[in-house]
Amino acid sequence: MKKIIVIGLGAGNLEGLPLGIYRILKGAKHLYLRTEKHPVVAELLAEGVAYESFDDVYKAHDQFPEVYEEISDRLFRMVEEKDEIVYAVPGHPLVAERTVQLLMDRAEEQGVEIKVKGGQSFLDPVFASLKIDPVEGFALLDGTDLQKHQVQPNLHHLICQVYDAFVASDVKLTLMEAYPDDYPVTVVTAAGVTEEERIQTIPLYELDRLDNYSNLTTVYVPPTEEDRALNRQFWRLREIVAILRSPNGCPWDREQTHQSIRKNLIEETYEVLETIDDEDPEAMCEEMGDLLLQIMLHSQMAEEEGYFTVQDVIAGLNEKLIRRHPHVFGASNAEDADEALQNWEDIKKKEKQGKGKETISRLDGVPRDLPAILKAYKYQKKAADVGFDWDELSEVLDKVKEEWEELKEAQTLEHRREELGDLLFVIVNIARFMKIDPEEALALTNKKFYYRFSYIEKKIIEAGKTFENTSLDEMENWWQEAKQKKKEEEGI
């Protein structure tokens, strides 16, 4: 069987190579290097070791994944011609070496044996140079593909493959999602290599301003207990809520139940909606935090009772989002928003049937505790989906006139309440026909009323008067004045 022998060049000079690896290098008939930019290579060249490198591949591609794919492709073509080749990489073959992983993944289909030999990884000299103990917990991450969810500020981080300032810039921006801009980071180049090792500690915002990056560069980010870093982590929020509910926590939080804070969830939701209407991002951020706290409290209570955890909540949501978006995560298609929504509803219906929760009525899926106007709107939409609807807006307007007359004719309080409800229900139908959310429309009017009425209050105070000695005509004039002033402010 054709064979690729993979070896590591270690992290330093020739003296650091194991004897077995040295002999393989000296005896290799066909030696290929991922890169010749390594301290050992010059010494091997001086000893007459011949090789070919893949440095030209780096110049041919803009993205590292493309580089690694081409190198592995070339190696399989080489071994096809030569039966056995030696492939040498910096450090250890199984530490931060994507090309080696690609070789092993495709070996069986290519009919090639991959024999991985040893080599010293860069980790030992880096730990020694930084004088840190990895048993405290550390994360080894790839600088060319660093994701913000991988960063955990309470751990040591070693970020390798920071080849140049462009990679360093991407790393910096990702780290800034978790750490303050001035957080100290250490850049280690050629760790353990005599006369070449360089260690620089700089603030995070300067990470891409150095000029000595190479394939031997590692960025070290120390762990922190600073609140400004830890408070950005989801696990920290969960920890704080658990502490508040613990025996040594807050007496008020400990006493709460799902029912006792039920109304808080509704109130916080409406406060978020208010910030959306006000177009106030700063307030929205704060109020969304308050809303999230309600989710966390309910989840913590459920965890204490042994029902579920917030992790279960997240897992269930992720699974649902993937399952109900087959046009994104599967093979289905959705040409527009309406088709995507229909996909969602169809899958939702099948899920309920699978759980034995098929509803008696199509209207049963509308939450019981929705505000009455929004509930009416959703009822009407579900009925319209199966053809129970007017054909034209004019028909709905005629129905409004009919309900208005019936309301005027009603004599008792009970009858008037009923007819007023009918009239409001038809008004909601008008909103639906016009593709207007009635809740949003009424919220806008409420906001408008608040502005104008508070303007009247302000004018009464400025005039040194009270409502009792202010005429309706005066209040109407100020109402119109407020209306005109708002139009001028909005450039209408």
Condensed summary:
The protein is an alpha/beta fold.
> What is the number of beta strands?
10
What is the rounded distance between the termini?
Answer: 81 Å
Over all CA atoms, what is the radius of gyration?
34 Å
**How would you sum up the major sheet?**
5 strands, parallel
The parts where pLDDT drops under 50 for at least 5 residues are none
Series of H and E elements: EHEHEHHEHEHEEHEEEHHHHHHHHHHHHH
Helical element count? 20
Mean pLDDT: 90
**Order of strands across the biggest sheet?**
3-2-4-1-5
Molecular shape: elongated
Kindly estimate the percentage of residues that lie in beta strands according to DSSP: 5-15%
Strand-pairing-aware structural class: alpha/beta
Question: In which range does the helix fraction lie?
Answer: 40-55%
What does this structure look like?
There is one protein chain. With 492 residues, this protein is α/β, with parallel strands linked by helices. Strands 3-2-4-1-5 form a 5-stranded parallel β-sheet, with helices on both faces. The protein has a 5-stranded mixed β-sheet with strand order 6-7-10-8-9, with helices on one face. Helix content is 54%, strand content 10%. The protein has helices at residues 19-27, 39-46, 55-60, 64-82, 98-110, 123-130, 165-175, 227-230, 234-245, 251-255, 262-278, 281-304, 310-323, 326-329, 337-354, 372-385, 393-409, 413-433, 438-462, 472-489; strands spanning 2-8, 31-33, 52-53, 84-89, 112-116, 138-142, 156-160, 184-189, 198-203, 217-221.
